[in-house]
Amino acid sequence: MLNILISTTNAVFQTRVTKIAWNEDESRWKITTDRGDNLSARFVIQGTGPLSRPKLPGIPGIEEFKGHSFHTCRWDYQYTGGDRTGNLSKLSDKRVAIIGTGATAIQCIPFLGESAKQLYVFQRTPSSVDLRGNKPTDEAWFNSLDAGWQRERRANFSSMLLGQPVAEDLVQDGWTDIARRVGNALMARESGEGMPDIEEMMAASEIADFEKMNEVRARVDSIVSDPNAAELLKPWYRQFCKRPTFNDQYLPTFNRPNVELVDTAETQGVERITENGLVANGKEYEVDCIIFATGFEATSAPHRRVDFDTIGREGLSLFDHWKDGLRSLHGISCHGFPNWFTIGINQNGLSPNFTEMFDDLAVHITYIISEVLARGKEVVEVSSSAEEAWVQEIIATTNPVRNAFLAECTPGFYNQEGKSENLQNISYGPGINAFNQLIRQWREAGDLAGLELR
């Protein structure tokens, strides 16, 4: 199939797209870049992602710091030395501050603590840090697996996280551990009439969650020798309020004499940045380098995050089309944007395993393009009625349990920093396995329902 679609493959690196516009006369997309390129494409697939623009904190004085600073997604190895395996030898005489203790910080703090003369870790909310426990794969077991084991394992993982019954946990990691506990709790409460009602399910989930988080907190006590630091490193929220993390070196880092945890919960973050360092809890910490482990912009305007405009038929901007909420069919195509596709996390099946999501969306898009070519058509576009029907399907299948759960969580990426979410922008309520089955049945029907070919 790919031989039909692609005759040559060219990659253009270190280049930013500045605009994409549909040319109706030529039935082609015109793409311009910051290097002066003017490209023409029959089909366009955007995979710009929801988290692509680094987020810097709005701390007063951030521009006044005279030392060195960088964001974790723009790691400066020329300054730190070393590589992705560590050995940041150029930090041996440096006082370093890192702001943030999310998923990225969990990974890099052990290396910083190992190399820096002094490391200050500025924390607003502690992460849930569980055992990672990586070990070599048993070759005999691997060779015994049948063809298709990857897809089966992925579907099993997603089913468990949705609380759906499975015969066996094929993954057996920290993610599925809590899901397995919730499932067992529900089975224990099952009556002769069937599964418990929604209130029973939520109660069982909360108990299982509390038991798991107690283990996470107990793990902190068992590893971190300073009782004050240990208490500050304990997460007091439901496990899936924030992205769970798994690391075996993070907590031991706080036993190092050169590492100091600076908790900023009372002031909700660093108070200000000065020429020489940072002020937190009324105290100034002088440092040579500040590292921002502050994530990516998730709630800013889409145009700012994508950083270029997509102009469809009749000069319609994609961002104007989405001004009141996302509109699409299956989360990948929009009315008014011919031969255009996007791969993302909205209005389709969502899973913590992003490669699973994007793999299945790529299969779906490939099918559509191959059918357009096989049928001798030039253009494919979502009909207005199909787009509206899918928007209403997304709203109708909203998971009320999910929304109620996130509303009670501490502010973070998962709940839009505590803001209410437009129901049009969320994922397909029944989950990724149900979504993949839906689009698979759509492909098997063969009539390209909701699409207009010309």
Structure description:
This protein has 454 residues and is α/β, with parallel strands linked by helices. The protein is 33% helix and 15% strand. It has 14 helices and 18 strands. The protein has a 5-stranded parallel sheet with strand order 5-14-6-7-10, covered by helices on one side. The chain is globular.
Outline of this structure?
The protein is an alpha/beta fold and 454 residues long. It has helices at 2-5, 77-80, 103-115, 139-143, 149-161, 174-189, 198-223, 227-232, 302-306, 318-321, 354-374, 384-396, 400-407, 432-445, and strands at residues 17-23, 28-33, 38-41, 44-46, 68-71, 95-99, 118-123, 129-130, 245-246, 259-263, 272-273, 277-280, 283-286, 289-292, 309-311, 340-342, 380-382, 451-453. It is built from 14 helices and 18 strands.
Radius of gyration (CA) equals 25 Å
Beta-strand residue fraction: 15-25%
Provide the spatial order of strands within the biggest beta sheet. 5-14-6-7-10
Shape: globular
Give the biggest sheet. Answer: 5 strands, parallel
DSSP strand tally: 18
Separation of the first and last Cα atoms? 22 Å
What are the low-pLDDT stretches, counting only 5+ consecutive residues below 50?
Answer: 1-7, 189-195
Oligomeric status: single chain
Average per-residue pLDDT, rounded, comes to 88
By helix and strand content, what is the structural category?
Answer: alpha/beta
